[in-house]
Amino acid sequence: MADVIHAWHPNVPQVQEVLHAQFEHHAYPSHTHDSWTVLLVDQGTVTYDLDRHEHRTTNSTVTLLPPQVPHDGRSATPDVPFRKRVLYLEPEWLSLSAVDAAAEAPTLFDPSVTSTVDQIHAALNDPADVLAAECGVLALRELVQPHLKSPVDIASDKPLARRLRHLLDDRLDETFTIAEAAAQSGFHDQSHLTRHFRRTLGTTPGVFAA
């Protein structure tokens, strides 16, 4: 079986390049990209060193490799081919603060992340679906950001969620909006507040106050 490589540069914002490939024996030497690398391995298993730590791809998960961090790659089983799809996204797609978190934990186990990446590739296969691909890339950014927070960031969100919980406890007999709760708790990004309330307390403010 010969190696098969299909690479192109779609006219989609934030997307530098797309690669669909199947390799029988190919191994990548250590290298870096100036982009975020979003990897789906559809067949086989790949082992790779990222920032001198060994990792392995798993079925139905997405691997996110940060820019300017050395990595290599090879089939986990000698003589067993692997097939992959890759998105190379602009370095500005995620903030620089996410680089260290991605280097430490590059595997994203969220099924919605995998599904979104799959949908992006499907849209990229059709030149008429540029808008769908762009929307998918934006949605993917929102999905991966919660997975790339450092322990310090997560800890700083907990007092905020606790303030909202105390506010809800004090006003269980009243009707009010998330916007009002966010303003009174000193935080005006409503979606961010709701997301971290759910992460800290395991439920949403609507459900909690019901």
From TrEMBL:
UniProt keyword list: DNA-binding, Transcription, Transcription regulation
PROSITE patterns: HTH_ARAC_FAMILY_2
GO molecular function terms attached to this record: DNA-binding transcription factor activity; sequence-specific DNA binding
UniProt domain HTH araC/xylS-type: residue ranges: 162-210
Annotated protein name in UniProt: Transcriptional regulator, AraC family
Lineage: Bacteria, Bacillati, Actinomycetota, Actinomycetes, Micrococcales
